[in-house]
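Take a careful look at the protein record below. Let me know whether the structure tokens fit the sequence:
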Amino acid sequence: MRSLPFFLASILTLLVTVCCHDLAAASRAPEDPRSGQISAVEWSEDGQFLIYTHMKTQYRFHLSSAVREEFGAAKDTPAPPRRRSRRARGGGEDLTGTYVGRPTRGRQYTQVDSPNGRWEAHYENWNVVLKEKDSGEKIAVTISGNKDIHYGTASWVYGEELGQNRAMWWTPNSQKLLFYRFDDTDVQPFHLVTGWSKFNTVHYPEYYPKAGAKNPGAQLMVYDLASQEITHIDVGGGSDEYIYNIRISPDGAVMLVNWTDRLQQHLKVMAIDLETGACRVVVEEQQSTWQRNSPDMRYLADHQRFIWTSERSGYSHYELRNLAGERLNNISSGDFQTAGIDFVDEEQGQIGFRGYSSPINPYYMQYHIADLDGKNHRRVTTLDFHHSSFQWSPDKKWLVAQYEEVNTPPSTALYSSDGRLVAKLAEGDPATAANIAEMFSFRSNDDQHEIYGILYKPKDFDRTRQYPVINSLYGGPGSNEISARYVANPRSENNRGYLVVKVNNRGTGNRGKKFLGAAYRRLGDIDIQDHADAIRMLRERDYVDGERVGIVGFSYGGYMAAMGILKHPDVYTAAVNGSGVTDWRHYDTIYTERYMSTPQLNPDGYDIGRATREDYVKNFKESGGHLLIMHGMVDDNVHPSNAFQLIDALDKGSAPYESRFFPNNGHGLGRGAGKTQWEFFDRVLQPVFKGRRISL
């Protein structure tokens, strides 16, 4: 005979099941696509009730019995005030000083004031100068700076690729100033010209190290106000290594710096002794492809322990470490990628975080909880849908979450912290689905990975018609093209009469190191292969016109668009390359070598990924395809020489193309690029727009 506790548990389970069913039925509103969403979530002070609004009615949900009751009409709550967009004057204040001004892209702040407000540190004429605010007295910290040797600033490539927008740091007691020394002596400058629309142009050289070429040498120094002496920090920093991400612990006790080798496979986080210049290792990581440059590091209240994001398992997971250099324990584990920490509750010894852990679809976000000691790790959101809009009860026992998928309207669930589905508070009606997006998948051509994409359709989609296609993409390493969230509205391209295809190719993020590292040393090869194979699969459908397929992207996406039509002219009819790289030997060391190694170590990879190859141009010419090249004449990121070399290769191969250059634009091309793009696509692909075929 079964025990009484088992009998009671069975009855409770039945009540919850019935309750879930009744709540679902009560929540349906076939005419309203928001029927599965709730708002104004509140938790009673005694922890017994959840109060929320659904479809203009307020409800109270009994957490212990899983019974819901109407609580009256929804209260009229004023909309929260809109935040006004305001451009910050400076870089804010922290323990290393107050940063003044706003550096442009790739540059660093030129002034930082000491925490005590007494001193200003300036980067002036290649040197570091201190100025006492009250007296105006100046101290020349360095005097040997010149166009090759710079103090208190950094290389453009450090700013662009490592996010290094600071080059001077005060200690919290305002007694020492840490600063960069950069040596560009062996770096070949790239010469840009500005003022193309004026009567005379201006010469604009930039020290820009290109893949495989000489790098700048970086060093760290510290100046002591009391002794007026400079100490060199022993952290390396030669031309074949990088030192960056200088910061201080929350209590101001320890200053840290990241070090990595030139290929960025070996990372060390170092603690600096500002008295002697010595450094010691706090964390060390290595990967066979590339190591993430600046993993997240979240301190606990004691300012000694921190949560570190490691990829040593092949997926990003959390570890508990300390500044003494010890790894205390793993916090999370599993064959899935974490996606960010939501809370750390030290009193309860818990951490809450998001992760892509659904076995059904790798892009379905889920919620996890674990103890800080690594025990009791569990997935809280047990439904295999994409989850978002997480709201915890104050005691962290109950979680409200919205769940959905691309073609399933949002619903709202209540979970217990142990991963039990307590109730569906509101369910979206499948009958209200917009039916304008579809997630699809297929095997990669090496049969190693499942590739996912989304097909977006016009609102008035008619499967008896044939539609031209736009493959809109970026596709760079670690990026993300698709989301599993419900799609309620068509894209702008759909409104012009196109189907749109987005694909998360190999090398994109959120799938772990194997998927990410599949693109290592192979940019422009397997990444564009996945997009072309997606089109090959989709064009088997009657409503997809495989003879009218366009591909478009900007920056890395521009490169992908060019590679698409040059390597796969059987797939693509027209391509728009906006500000794209055309040969990775043109691009900077830090970004390119992270993913491609160097041209000296990977000559075949650089050649396969080169858009200017004669065989690519020949195949493109024979296909009769159409290519539009757009570039800014003052692009200091992807230099216009990329476009010129592609044009030169096309001219030599007698292949057709169109081009537009923007005389005063950098890497961003502005609104004119969009107008040119759509005039090109509409002319070549001729979609049916508002009942008529566009033909210009």
About this structure: The first strand starts at residue 39 and ends at 43. Residues 1-31, 84-90 have pLDDT under 50 and may be disordered.
